[in-house]
Amino acid sequence: MNTTIIQVANLHKQFNDNQVLTGLDLKIESGQIVGLLGTNGSGKSTLIKCMLGLLKPTSGTSTVFNESSWDLSATAKSRLGYVSQEFALLPWMTVKATTDYTGAFYEHWDYAYVTRLMKEWNLDENQRVGVLSVGQRQKLAVILALGHHPELLILDEPVASLDPVARRQFLQSLIEFTEDEENTILFSTHITSDLERVASHVVFLEEGKIGFSGELDSLKHQVKRIRISAEQDLPLCLNIPGTLRSQIDGQYALLAVKNFQSEAMETFTKELNATFTVEDLNLEEIFLELSGVSTHAEAEVTV
Ligand SMILES: Nc1ncnc2c1ncn2[C@@H]1O[C@H](COP(=O)(O)OP(=O)(O)OP(=O)(O)O)[C@@H](O)[C@H]1O
Question: What sections of the sequence does the record tag as coiled-coil (predicted)?
């Protein structure tokens, strides 16, 4: 049975007069791999920090393992792994000294697992941290977060500096991490193809609110591109509920809709004496449509 790992209720966060998060409600359950999407500055890091108790919400609540995020016990913290965007490592230490030093803080540090990950991810344990590339440092930060087998892993843009090979290895490790145990992952990213490869659920932040939260498959099922073709010119405004974008050109129309319902579309097009076809969008196209950026430029309006 799935248990609730993170629960956010009516969460607001404001920095001076900058309202970043506006009444968010969110539930993440054990075993989920949740991808957090949103445009730059939409509040992904702020939400993560509120969940971890690193920032205090202006109002509302957040709990992790049923404990208030703002007041997490040492036991709850030991069940967490977190990699922030601005992680700090000591440049004069070697990779090995860094992992040993971090491991010393944990009761159940898995030295063998850490050594295996370092080998798989081509990290030289004798190298000094100060001379590592940005991507190598990012790999090390992720390994440090995994070494104690956290039940909940939170990663803020973990793959931004990784090359495609390292990204594949990293994603594979994430899959193993949740396959072996009932672990939960929340990660923010701008790389939608990565998210599509591993995430079971998606949370989409939009103007301080949750634009979508649910299963990845459900999101793909709901957001579609529709082509309408009629015998006569179509009206200039179609008024189809859930339309994100529409382009009308005489007898033809091209639309992106959210909450697509086949029956409603059938009724609507019948009234216009028109027919329609439905096309799937990939996650990047869905993300762009939900963010208000048309992907129609790449698609012809006519059938
Ligand atoms: N400590 C802070 N003090 C003041 N403003 C902040 C602080 N942290 C974040 N902000 C503001 O909150 C907004 C959201 O920032 P945040 O870093 O959460 O966005 P993000 O979605 O993670 O962005 P990105 O995709 O670029 O990493 C921005 O306008 C930012 O300037």
Answer: none
What are the DSSP calls for 114-170, one per residue? HHHHHHHTT--TTSBGGGS-HHHHHHHHHHHHHTT--SEEEEESTTTT--HHHHHHH
Pick the residue with more confidence: 71 or 300? 71
Whole-number Å distance, alpha carbon 4 to ligand 1 midpoint, is 27
Distance 126 CA to ligand 1 centre (A): 36
Instruction: Verify that 227 and 214 share a domain, yes or no.
Output: no
Give residue 193's domain range: 4-219
| Predicted TM-score (pTM) of this structure | 0.88
Question: Which CATH number fits the domain that encloses residue 69?
Answer: 3.40.50.300
- In tens, the pLDDT along 251-269 reads 899 989 988 888 888 888 8
The predicted structure's pLDDT at residue 102:
93
Are residue 197 and residue 237 in the same domain, yes or no?
Answer: no
ipTM exceeding the 0.90 mark: yes
Residues 34 and 145 in one domain: yes
Q: Is residue 303 part of a domain?
A: no
Taking the CA of residue 190 as reference, the ligand 1 atom at the shortest distance is 25
Query: Are 177 and 33 members of one domain?
Result: yes
Bridge partners (DSSP) listed for residue 187: 35, 155
Going by CA atoms, what residue is nearest to atom 26 of ligand 1? 40
Q: Which of 24, 36, 44, 161 to mutate to test the pocket of ligand 1 (most atoms within 8 A of CB)?
A: 44
Tell me how far apart the alpha carbons of residues 154 and 145 are, in angstroms, rounded to a whole number.
9
With the most atoms of ligand 1 within 8 angstroms of its CB, the residue from 12, 19, 45, 56 to mutate is 45
**Ligand 1 pocket by Cβ (under 6 Å):** 15, 18, 20, 38, 40-46
Single residue among 219, 237, 261 that ends a domain in this structure: 219
Cβ contact 90:39 at 8 Å: no
Q: Is the pLDDT of residue 61 over 90?
A: yes
Q: Is the pLDDT of residue 301 over 80?
A: no
Task: Looking at the structure, tell me whether residues 26 and 149 fall in a common domain.
Answer: yes
